[in-house]
Structures are given as structure tokens and as C-alpha cells.
Amino acid sequence: MSRKIPVKFDLHTHNEMCGHAIGTIEDYVKAAIEKELSIIGISDHTPYFHSEDDQPYPRITMARSELPRYVDEVLRLKEKYASQINVLLGIESDFFPLHHATYKKFLEKQPFDYIIGSVHFVDDIRHL
């Protein structure tokens, strides 16, 4: 009979880039190490790719221009802390049926380990 080994992890995290959380990505990685997690997934909110504006909703998600820095930072920390914790590059993406192709185009270009699909808005986001 095999014995199951518990794995402590957190795959749903947000950092200061999204505008509604505090702390840097590295702060979250260090906290996960301190709490003896085996895996930390960094999964901030995707930019609103369907907007012409770089940052139409600053308290909801990162700006479009921040995505490359976000990806680079998580990949840097993945390498830096590889001997202490498994850092995964994730993203939380709202699902907007009308903009599915736009999001797919942007997301498939990135080296994400996982994507959290979410529905935060049932009606058009312009109602915020």
C-alpha cells in the first residue's frame, strides 16, 4: 500500500500589479517558502486585452504594458528559488465570450504553466 505525501501549495495569488492586492511577486514567493509550501503559483489578473486603453480598470487588473514584466519577473524568481520551491507562472483570465479570440491570441504567446479561468462579470464590463 502506497502512502500519500501531502503537498502544500497555493495556485491563486495576486500581487500589487493588479491594483487590489499588496506585496511584490517576490514577497509572495518568500512567504510561501516561510510557510513551507512546495508549490506557489503566481496568477495575477490578465490585462483587458479587448480595450484600446493600456489600463482601463486600474483597481482590477494589471496594465497591458505590464504583462511582459510580470512574465519575466515570475520566470526570474522561478529560477532564483528553484532549490527551495516550485514557482509556477500562471494567470487568472476573465472569460468574455465576445473577446475569446483576442484573449487566446495574447495568452498563447506566453509560457504559462496554467491559466485560471474565471467569470467575474456576467454583464458587459462597462457597467463597473
Q: Given the structure, what is the number of helices?
A: 3
Rounded mean pLDDT score? 89
When the domains are counted, the total is 1
Named at the architecture level, the CATH assignment is: Alpha-Beta Barrel
Task: Report the CATH C-level class.
Answer: Alpha Beta
Structural class: alpha/beta
Order of helices and strands: EHEHEHE
CATH H-level homologous superfamily name: Metal-dependent hydrolases
Q: Can you tell me the residue ranges where pLDDT is under 50 for at least 5 consecutive residues?
A: none
- Work out the radius of gyration: 16 Å
Percentage of residues in DSSP E strands: 15-25%
CATH topology: TIM Barrel
Q: Give the distance, in angstroms, between the N- and C-terminal Cα atoms.
A: 54 Å
Organism: Halalkalibacter wakoensis JCM 9140
Keywords: Amino-acid biosynthesis, Histidine biosynthesis, Hydrolase
Catalytic activity: L-histidinol phosphate + H2O = L-histidinol + phosphate
GO molecular function: histidinol-phosphatase activity
Keywords:
128 residues, alpha/beta, TIM Barrel, 4-stranded parallel beta sheet, 3 helices, 25% helix, histidinol-phosphatase activity, hydrolase
List the helices and strands and how they pair.
Layout: E1 9-10, H1 25-34, E2 39-42, H2 67-80, E3 86-94, H3 100-107, E4 114-118
Parallel strand pairs: 1-2, 2-3, 3-4
GO molecular function: histidinol-phosphatase activity
Keywords: Amino-acid biosynthesis, Histidine biosynthesis, Hydrolase
Family: Belongs to the PHP hydrolase family. HisK subfamily.
